[in-house]
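I have been asked to look over a protein record a colleague put together. Alongside the sequence sits a line of tokens, each denoting a local backbone shape. I have pasted the whole thing underneath without changing anything:
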Amino acid sequence: MKNLDEKTKKLAVIAGLALLCLLSVTFLLKLFTASGMTSGTIAYLDGKKSTVLSLTAAATTSSAAITMIPGDIGTPIADKLADLSGYMLVVLCAIYLEKYIMAVIGKVSFGLLIPAAIVIWGFSYYTGKYPNLREISKKILTLCLVLSISVPISVLVSRTIEDTYENSIQETIDNAESSAQEIQENAGSQNIWDRFISTIEGGVSTVTQRFEGILNGFIEATAVLIVTACIIPVLVLIFMYWMIKLILGINSPMPRSLKQALERMSRQMPEQNQS
């Protein structure tokens, strides 16, 4: 009788797991891949991509324009503006990575990996063997859940931060474009350039100071984009990983490479702020 009860219990658990598999490949798969579920996040990432491209173009144009100032007084600023394109490339790669995750993670997780993890767990439970398979299935489940919800949550947090700096970023782009156009229009001829400088109080130094202010605006905008596109998604990913790990009772240490990457990132941010 005891063996019969135990077998009945196992069959009931297997039936419940089969129901979860069916729920994953039907309702949850449809929910997490629906256009209404992902369109808002994709639209936000596309808007951020346009902002990054506009900032990169404005920084490049400003760098080229400031080199037209006589002498080498504007060269350091031009070099700094040119260097910002490297940081923008990192931000752009992070945005594309988030978009790709949003595009495929729902189908891969709820259509393949989560059902596979449930089957693996059910096999180990029913046979009473291979306890390591249960840990593997838990880790697969954790990975899928973390990737599925971390991007939308990080986008929500990033959007909240960017709303504060949205006007200043657009103002930086507009000021850089107008200043670069003004210099380019008046730097074609030395006589025209001299007359243009003579009409500005302070001459070349005033023009240089204007671009110094624009450079500061670019640095601030770049810092905001790095935080919202690179740092916040990583922090949200780690937080969700530990939360789900705690709920599922998975005893696995944080990957050493990830810990080292976070330590390097925390050291580099103060250095960038000081520069």
Q: What stands out?
A: Residues 2-274 form one domain. The mean pLDDT is 76. The chain has one domain: 2-274. Residues 124 and 132 are 8 Å apart (CA to CA).
